[in-house]
Specification:
Elements: E1 7-11, H1 20-34, E2 39-40, E3 47-50, H2 52-59, H3 63-75, E4 79-81, E5 95-99, E6 105-110, E7 113-118, E8 125-129, H4 130-138, H5 143-155, H6 167-174, H7 178-190, E9 194-206, E10 209-220, H8 227-230, H9 233-251
Antiparallel strand pairs: 1-8, 2-3, 3-5, 4-5, 6-7, 9-10
Helix pairs in contact: 1-3, 1-5, 2-3, 6-7
Length: 300
């Protein structure tokens, strides 16, 4: 069953340290997004008609997991629900659910386009492409990869359209280990949904020796209509180069401990040799500047 709407808005502050995401976690996010398969159109607020059984089938959670996650969304005021007595509620019973923590916006014209302007800093938002999220799920990803996508998208709201946050900080916000975040970055690159470039970032002294400091620059494909543009020959070649390095490392059965990684000499992306084929920044597309009708502030 597909999502009933193409785009939704999620508050950016969900993905800050100790933000809402840290309370509902990645499974709660997945359950919340799954509600949008049952969205009732033409309502003043986001309203859904569904049952716990339908939500369970859409996520793969067990009966008790679905109920506990649903109650957690209610506890943290993400949603409200028509059910008042859970001890008398059957998972097949119909219920009406409303989304509560929705960014408040006003429609304005900007550069010849109609966009949704947040009414306050608390209403700053990420536009989540639900068709892209369905693609994530079809690839076997879950709320963890979706959470990473949302976080990188939030961090990419700048003129260059790139995210620079350390793996340590990403892991802290997402409630995951550094190793898991690193693996997810690999998987998103392998599926051409993200391009992660390892760039020089000054120097660091390790055991008395001065070494080049490296850090990731991430570019995320945030809209399914941009997948073709994101996978042009040159950027695909750059991602393929990353994959070749990772596969070479795996072939040698090298184990990399990233538990204390803080943006220095990441051996899983760097082979110790200078890279003369580094892509020039000016050639990289800024995902926020692609001029089409699927801009993150449009058609939501």
């Amino acid at each position: 069953m597909n999502f009933a709407t193409n785009h939704i808005k999620v508050k950016s502050n969900w993905f800050e340290k100790e933000g809402l995401f840290s309370n509902i976690e990645h499974d709660g996010l997945l359950l919340y997004l799954n509600l949008y398969r049952y969205h009732i159109a033409n309502q003043e607020q986001y309203t859904f008609a569904t049952s716990l059984k339908q939500l369970r089938k859409g996520t793969g959670f067990t009966k008790i997991e679905t109920l506990n996650l649903f109650k957690r969304l209610i506890k943290y005021k993400v949603i409200s629900c028509s059910v008042t007595r859970w001890d008398r509620h059957n998972e097949n019973d119909f219920m009406i659910v409303s989304a509560l923590d929705i960014p408040q916006t006003e429609r304005i014209e900007k550069n010849g386009k109609m966009v949704d302007k947040p009414l306050s800093d608390d209403d700053l938002y990420i536009s989540v492409d639900m068709r892209l999220m369905q693609h994530y799920l079809s690839l076997g990803f879950d709320g963890r990869e979706i959470g990473l996508c949302c976080l990188v998208q939030k961090l990419s709201h700048n003129t260059e359209g790139k995210a620079w946050m350390t793996i340590n900080s990403m892991a802290e916000i997402l409630g995951l280990s550094n190793d898991k975040v690193n693996k997810m970055i690999h998987q998103l690159n392998r599926n051409y949904l993200m391009y992660s470039d390892l760039r020089k970032n000054g120097h660091i002294v390790i055991e008395g020796k001065k070494k080049v400091n490296y850090r990731y620059e991430h570019r995320i494909c945030h809209n399914i209509n941009h997948m073709k543009a994101f996978n042009t020959d040159w950027i695909k070649a750059a991602i393929d180069k990353n994959i070749a390095k990772w596969d070479k490392k795996n072939a040698k059965n090298r184990i990399v401990d990233v538990s204390n990684e803080d943006d220095f000499v990441l051996d899983d992306l760097w082979d110790g040799k200078e890279d003369s084929s580094e892509v020039d920044d000016k050639e990289l597309p800024n995902v926020w500047d692609w001029d089409d009708n699927s801009d993150p502030c449009l058609n939501v």
